[in-house]
Amino acid sequence: MESINDFDYENVEEILAEAEVETTASELQAAICGMIAAGLKPNDRGWRDTIFDLINDGREVPIEVKQVIEELAEWTDKNINEQDSLAPTLLPDDGYPAVDQLEAIAVWCQGFLLGFGLQTSNDSVENPEVREGLNDLAEISQLELEAEDNEETRHAIFSFIEHIRVVVQVIHWELVVKHQASANISPGNDTVH
Question: Tell me: the pLDDT tens digits for 95-136?
């Protein structure tokens, strides 16, 4: 898999359903994004067993699901500076009822928070921007799932996704990018190497 288009929501949902895995495409992608936003480096192999145990209640995860997880994590890490690879992309499209889209958004936020907590061992977050972002995601994860399929609901869905995109970028910036940038500045030298 080379691009996010290869990670089609329906395709990933089908792979997970056929494997009888206890997660959704949205939750899976979000958990990986939450871990990466909190500082996970996907080439550090230790996180895989945690995800495998988590998504299938400790039962063996089929190889095709492991492959999707590996490729999704690699794609996300590889494209992190080029695209919104940490944003919710494995969500049902406008062809699905609004209630299904809202449910997937709520599940995405829950998955992100879970992945974030796994990576940070649920340590308290000192950064106020990160705390505020995590609180926003927690609120969105509790969305009211009764909705009519109309223009107002479609606009709300779009607004939720855009807000999540910004929140996730802020969290990643505050916890990872700023830290990496400060690590690249030598003491006594104000230039970035």
Answer: 999 999 999 999 999 999 999 999 998 777 889 999 999 999
> Domains of the chain: which residue ranges?
4-183
CA 166 to chain CA centroid, nearest Å: 12
Residues belonging to the chain: 193
Which CATH code for domain 4-183?
1.20.120.740
- Phi/psi for 140 (5° steps) reads -65, -35
> What pLDDT, on the 0 to 100 scale, is given for residue 1?
39
Work out the pLDDT band at 145, boundaries 50, 70, 90: confident
Does residue 91 contact residue 10 with C-beta atoms inside 8 Å?
no
Average pLDDT on 28-38 reads 93
d(CA 147, CA 169) in angstroms, rounded, equals 28
- 3-state DSSP call for residue 185? strand
Tracing tokens 């109309």 back to the chain, one arrives at 150
Residue position matching structure tokens 């919104």: 84
Three-state secondary structure call for residue 120:
helix
Average pLDDT over residues 155-179: 92
- What pairs with residue 192 in β-bridges? 185
Which is nearest to 118 in space by CA: 47, 25, 189? Answer: 47
